[in-house]
Amino acid sequence: MSPDQPRIAFLAAPTEAARQAQESLTARYGQVGPEEADILCALGGDGFMLQTLHRHGGLAKPVFGMKLGTVGFLMNHFNEADLLQRISAAEPAVLKPLEMIVQTESGASVGSLAYNEVSLLRQTRQAAHLSIDLNGQTRLDELICDGVLVATPAGSSAYNYSASGPILPFGSGIVALTPIAPFRPRRWRGALLKAETEVCFRVLDPYKRPVSATADSHEVRDVVEVRIREARGREVTLLFDPEHNLEERIVSEQFMS
User: Fold this and answer.
1) Which of 93, 100, 111, 147 is at 20 to 30 A from 234, Cα to Cα?
2) Together in a domain, 77 and 25
């Protein structure tokens, strides 16, 4: 490793392909722990990238991902030969996660971050009955649905888009509030909100109609209230090849058939 070469922590998903890539890259570029690294290099798919952000996001180290999984929207193409040049030329994309604070039936308060979305889902065959407050003002007295979610621009092309929500431009400062299979109000299709809006969901009948809340992959069951807002001071930076940066990917998603 040369003195001016960035110190890289290669982090691998638990797959054979990712482990082999980690070994090869470590032999070529060296390896340090995440705390000592200048750059984190995540090897896997989008799921592993989210794990990396949740596990190491507090270190405030930029992350360059390379796809070695089934889905790679947040990843770059894998190529170990020119990694240092790619990192040097990479364009940054700053992600601002959502903060979820949940109150459960037992009285517990649980917090978690979401880089893609926070979703509420019914736990049984019974539809969920929810109310929606925005910045302390009730906007919807009762939403009867399978669930509802709040998505960031980075996550808007994932679960949110599958639920017929809009794809949001990166850096727009907007989040999508999208119902999942709404029954009442029948014509309501969600809303676009400023990212700093505090969204509060209340479960109107938590015993008969239990609801779970999930921030990315962290699930909390039997919730009675969920508050969501943009997390303050928890930004993370992803690095992308200039020819296929995150902003371009999100725009391209809107024109795919």
Assistant:
1) 147
2) yes
Residue entry with tokens 């989040």? 175
Residue 1 lies in a domain: no
- Known catalytic membership, residue 216: no
Kindly state the average pLDDT of the residues 219-225.
97
- Cα separation, 170 vs 251, whole angstroms: 9
Structural domains in the chain (count): 2
Q: Are residues 208 and 108 in the same domain?
A: yes
Catalytic residue selected from 4, 38, 46, 133: 46
Cα–Cα distance for residue pair 28/22, rounded to 1 Å: 10
Q: What are the DSSP E strand ranges found in the chain?
A: 8-12, 39-44, 63-67, 91-95, 98-104, 109-114, 117-122, 128-134, 137-145, 147-151, 174-180, 191-194, 199-203, 211-215, 218-220, 223-230, 236-240
Please give the order of strands across the beta sheet that includes 199-203: 109-114, 98-104, 223-230, 199-203, 128-134, 137-145
For the entire predicted model, the pTM comes to: 0.88
Q: What number of helices (H) and strands (E) belong to the chain?
A: 5, 17
CATH classification at residue 214: 2.60.200.30
Domain residues for the domain of 27 are 8-95+235-253
Same domain, 108 and 183: yes
Give the mean pLDDT of 87-106.
95
Task: For residue 60, name the pLDDT band (cuts at 50, 70, 90).
Answer: very high
Looking at the fold, whether 216 and 105 belong to one and the same domain comes out as yes
Residue 214 contacts residue 37 (beta carbons within 8 Å): no
Q: Looking at the structure, tell me whether residues 211 and 240 fall in a common domain.
A: no
